[in-house]
Design a protein that fits this description.
mainly alpha; 1% strand
Amino acid sequence: MIHIAKEKKLYDEPNHRSSHTAIVPSLGGIAIFIGFALSILIFSNGFLIHELKYIIAATLIVFGLGVKDDIMAISPKKKLLGQIFAALIIIILGDIRFTNFHGILGIHELNYVVSILFTIFVIIVVTNGFNLIDGIDGLASGISGLCTLAFGIWFYITGHYEYVVLAGSLLGALIAFFRYNVFGKHNKIFMGDTGSLILGLLISILMIHFNELNIYPDFKYAIKSAPAVSIGILAVPLFDTLRVMFIRIKNKRSPFEPDKNHVHHRMVSLGFKHVHASIRIMAVNILFIAIVFALRDIGNPSLLVIVALLGAFFSWLPSHLLHRKKARELQTA
């Protein structure tokens, strides 16, 4: 893909929002998709995933959206409609959806319409959350790898090997991409919207299946607070997206208007190199994962409050440190 992008001059050119200064091929998402699709189709034979054809079909839709956006650009409205269509394939045809609220707000079983609407909302939020954190080297692939690994390990220890294969296929593609994205010098590549949209969609599927398997936590290694744990696993993209959306609405701007208010932009502004900023943000996500699994039995309300407070703090901290840095610079000037 790097060779093709260079031959056809399919580059991500720097602009006022970019964190890079040189032109870089941006078709890494195609390689991620090929690596994932080949692996899952070959190795799922022994662990049959009944809904696999619908997962692949939905992934192909967001793959097409991402490729067009990376090469020609696509309007946010069309991108959103495509994501909803992909979500409906997963939900209605694949029957992959939230059916239970696990007692949050006193709600347990969801009726079919509410189940569809809520699942669409979650898939769209998670998909775009990963799309939005793809701003510096290694961040989107690193965070996605951590989330996939966390879900994959749980599926493995509970014997759901069909989803171990799905998680492992995605993780393998991410490890290969991470090597070229972070450590590639002459062969550097970005994942583009193709990669980040695919990651968000597939991780949202892992998240849904994780929650559905824990509706009745009466088995070994069951998670009593599955919704809170899954939010903690995805803490970085979810809370960063919520914070940025809030800032845009507060400033009377469109919540979909791009800017440089994300946590990774703040870290770069504080003077961190891309890889160092990514490692620190990934360390925060590892901390979240460790906390939610350690406190998995305290109940959804309590754990949700802890995750929300920690998420708000870590999302706010880089902006606070940057504000103090600028204040010191003004004083010395």
